[in-house]
Each structure stands twice: as structure tokens, then as C-alpha cells.
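## Example record

The block below lists the input lines for one assembly entry, exactly as stored, with component labels intact.
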Amino acid sequence: MKLRTFFGGVHPAPAKERTKNSPIATAPLPSRVVIPLAQGGAPCKPLVQVGDEVLAGQKIGDSEAFVSAPVHASVSGRVAAIESVPCPTGKNAVAVIIDSDGQDKWMDTSGSSLADLTATDIKDLIREAGLVGMGGAMFPTHVKVSPPSGKSFEAVIINGAECEPYLTCDYRLMVEEPEEIIFGLRAWLKVTGAQTGYIGIEDNKPEAVASLTAAAAGEKNIRVIPVATKYPQGSEKQLIAAILGREVPSDGLPVDAGALVQNIGTTYALAQAIKLGKPLVERVVTVTGTPLKKSCNLKVRVGTLFSDLLSYCQVSSAVGQLISGGPLMGIAQSVPEVPVLKGTSGILVLTPEEAEVPPERACIRCGRCVDACPIRLVPTLLDQYCRLDMWEQAEKWHVADCIECGCCAYVCPSKRHLVAALRLGKAEVLARRRQRK
Amino acid sequence: MIAAVWGLGGLGLLFGLLLGIAARIFAVNKDSKAEEILELLPGANCGACGFPGCSGLAAAIVRGEASPAACTVCGSDAAETIAQILGIEVAAEDCQIARLICRGGDSQVGLQADYAGLNDCRSAKAFGFGGKACTFGCLGLGNCARACPFGAISMGSDSLPRIDRELCTGCGVCVAACPQSVLELVPKPNRVFVACSSTAPGRKVRQVCKVGCIACRICEKVCEPEAIKVENNIARIDYSKCNNCGRCAEKCPRGIIINELADQYSASAVG
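Predicted C-alpha cells for the full assembly:
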């Protein structure tokens, strides 16, 4: 049978063996957490002051802006500071720093049953739980499930592709918690009013396909669909193309194709929020890499510093690069003292040899990037426009549609920094669009 | 044949007369000063001054709506000449020059990581400030040098831009090109300035930079005309009050207030 897939893409080595079979373990409770106030949408205003005692699960930041998700304390303890700190996004942001009292006292929470909740109730619950897209983009979920007027969702797709090399956090959740994911999917269907739920999983994860198929038995409107193993299969638009055979228009949203795509982690967090009333304060993170003694999947409190997790996993040899996320979409870090965010799916440590960046050479116009681009852009041309500040041309050639997947840079024989250049152009073009409005 | 000569000659005379009258009636009053000024302007009609071409600017200068130094392309010598034509003086603050308000080169600011990405300050800024420990300072990848239309900026040995005082016209293109906002336009006669942009508390500045402003306020105390103020953890000079005495520069324990008139700095470090 020919598997469903999308145009373009690349086949990097999956490199998942290291953590694939390591069950999700709970990371030790951190002595200090750093919780940035901007995790999804507009930055929150702090609701606590320095010196305040907080409980785990307590809301510590909220905003009146619609496109913003509240943040919660992930441990109990005392607020030590509210200051600007380096974040894994590469920028500095204001964060609430909490010194844990080691007792892990929780707010009183109570779960509810899905049958008792209306769509609006679930939306409110999603917002209060601070749910954001946990694949990395951290877009507030309550906004994502509210379609613009006149549009509606026909299908919900759960993104179980996990195409990024090295990462196995979603895979472990699919294997270990299939019931929770099916429960979460039923909640997505209820909140959106969509008819069908799909779970798209790359065919190199047969155990996940089997466990979810078993859990979905008896659910008439839920289908588990194996898709071809190809990067970036887990990108929203590419998954819609593979499963529904529809294309999200340029500058459009998945809702224009009638689809809502949700990450496995977010779906699990929604199930927890409904069943236990728990806000999003912990997530599964894959900590992996050759220099580590223990590569594993850890359930980690949001705000735990990378450095704490690295010392737990024991760095045994020289580190060349530290990356938040996977090797293709992830962001290289300059310091290890950055916190795990709601969207941090992995911490990848590379050896100096693995991390070596070959010198950039001139473009030879081979066109491999054009063949690899899943959005059908022309990276070679955009690279030049973006480097020469030719923003109008870059906009005309749809630089704003770039999903920054890195396929172009991966296949480039001249090792050009294509993604960096296109990112620059994308930021500039989007800023200019906002200015024009 | 005579008739033809008379006829054509008569027509010629008539048209000549009409043209002469028309020239009187529709005469355009040309300002000789504007003409002279136009001669001095570059004539490229680039529009950077904000007026419709060089003639537009010349007229505006004559009307007193623009400064004689409004054209950043033709430089300060031309501005002087224009001012002489009009019998006025160029206001000191109208002649500007770009300055780097950071001295945190590679040897001064700690590097937390190697940056191997795109050779562009904006790109480096998006990836943890290119590994530089100070998040306020110059990232040193030379967007300003590439942007300068006058070739006035070159990258120095410490990965800091050097600004050539003679070539800089104060056009401000580098200021717009700098994502860190560590370039600013200052009046050309002002020769004392604070070469730091960090608003971090002194404790943090010490951790990351050997020469950053720690907001100790010594400069504030020694400044007689009260031109220098420490606000938001950084010393700032009010150039309208500063008299170039250079005392603050002598006393600054971090050596980041720079007096270009003093010998020890004229040759080094400062653009």
C-alpha cells in the first residue's frame, strides 16, 4: 500500500534509537524554576510579587489579551525574583523565578467528566489551564480552537508524526498513554464540532500505531492513519496534505482547509486538564545526545533549567552544541541556564564533531533546495533577496510562507545558511505587513 | 521677392515682439542664491533630505525652512559655503556624526558560545545575541559597515566598527541598520561621549563586560555644567549642555566616557 504523504521533504537519519525504548521517567524536582511570562502569545503580567509563597498549579501570570495563555507555578515555594532571563528562544524575557520548598504542595484541583462539559466550558478550561501548542510554536490553544467567523473545522488531526530526528517524547506518550490521547481527541472533537478525528503517525513507529489503534477500537469517528516517514511530516500543513489531501492556502490557516492539528503533548495535557483539573506545568522532554551518559524521556516541570537536566543525565564528554528541540527545527543555545518552556520537546547535546558547521560556499544553482522545499518555495532565490535586503521581492516570492523546517539547508551542497537568511526575511516582511496595516 | 522678405521679416518681428511681451508677463523670479546653492548640492535628487530633489531643498534653505546642513550627502564643507552665501552660520547641532556607543569588543565582553550562523547582526541577535554575554552591546558582524553609503565605517580588529570622522556625513543609514541601537547621531562639535548602552545593573555589567557602565555616578558629580545624568543604569550626556571639558572622561573608572580631544583616545579604540 502506498502511504500518504506530501510534496518535497528530506530523509534525515531518525537517530531515535537512543531514547525510543526508554519509558517516561519523572525528573527530580528542581530546586529552582524559571517561568517566563511569555509562553504563547502576548506576555502575561505577573500576579505574584517577590517573596510571595506559591503552590504548584497556582496561576502566576495572566493577560487580558485574547492571544495569550496564562502561566502557572510548577513547584511550590517562594518567588525569589521577577527579572529578565535568557530563554531557549534565543531572546531574553521576563520570568518569575521560584525557589522550591521541596514539598511540592499543589493547589486543590478537581476534574470533570467530558460528558458534562459544553464546548464553551472546554474552551474556558483550555485557557485557564494555560494550554499552548507543545510542538514548539507555543500558540495559545484556546485561540487555535476558536475559528474565525464563517469558518469551521471538519476534522481534527492529532500529530503523531514526530518527524524531527532524536525526539521521542510524543512517541513514548503514544505508546504509554494511548487512552489519554484518545480521550483528548474526543475533547478536541467536542470543542470544535468536527466530525472526524485522525491520528497521523509515521510508519516507522508501528508500536504507536498498534497501541493507538487498539485504544481507538470502538470509536467510530476516530481513525489512526500511518503516513510515510519523511521530514517534515509533522508540520501542520504537510500533515493536512498527507491525511486530507488538501492544501492550506498561502497566508492561510489550517482552518481554511477545515482542519485543526494538535500535538500529542497538547492532547495529553488537555486530557489531564479535564480529568484532573491540572494546568500545564509539566511536560515530557527528550534529553538525548552522544555526550550524555543517560539519554532518556523525562517528565519535567516547566521552568526546570536545562543545566539541571543535563547534570541529571550526566554529561560525560565534550559538548559542541546544546539545542532546544531537535536538530532541524531546534535553536542552538549559548548558555545551559535556560528554562524548559511549555513548547520544549527536547534537549539535544551534540559532540564538537557533530556540531561542526562547514564553511559556507557560493550557491551553485543545483536546485536541490527547490526540490526539497515542502512549501514549494525557491530558497536559492529567496536567500539572495534576504541577504540583499530586497524585501519587496522576497515578499513577492512568498518568504512569509516559509515554515523554517530546514529541508533546504539540509540538502544544500554549498552548506548555505538558507534558513537563517529566510528567517530574517520572514521577520522583516511580517514586520512590514504589520506596519502597513 | 521683396514681398516675401517683408512678409517673413514682418512675421519674425511680430513673433519676437509677442515673445518679448510674454517673457515679461510670465517671468519667473529666480533667486540667485537658490541657484548658487543648487550648484553646491550633489544634484542626484535622492530625496534623503525630505524635499523634492536638490532644487526643492535649495529653495527651502533660502526660505529658511531647512538647515544649510540638511543635505547629508554633500558634507559639512558644502554646508559652510551654503551658510556663507546666506550670510548665516550653521547651527552646531545640525551637523551630526554617527558614533558607536559601545566599547565591548571581543576582548572586553565574554563570549558564551561561538556563533557560526549567517554573517548578519540581525540574525545573530535572534540566536542568543551571537553568543555575546552582553545583550545590549555591539554584535560586531558589520551590518553598519555594509550599509554605510559613504564608506565611512570599517570593522576594527576588535570586531567593533570604526567610524571615519572625515567621511561620515551623519546621514543616519547605519543607525537604522543597527538592530542593537548602539549607533547614534550626535552633534559633530561634541567630542565627549559615553561609549556604553547597557541598562543592566552594575553587578550584571561587571559579570559580562570589562568596560561597561556600572552607573557609579562619579561622572555626574564631576560635571560642572550638569550635562551628564545617570538614569536607568546608564550615564547619558545632554549635548546641549556639555562643554567638552572632559572631566567625566578623566574620572570614569571604567574608561567608557571618551574624550576624543584628549590624546590617549584620539588614535585608539574610538571611531
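The CA atoms of residues 34 and 143 of chain B lie 37 Å apart. The beta strands of chain B are 96-100, 153-155, 161-163, 183-187, 192-194, 228-231, 234-237, 257-259.
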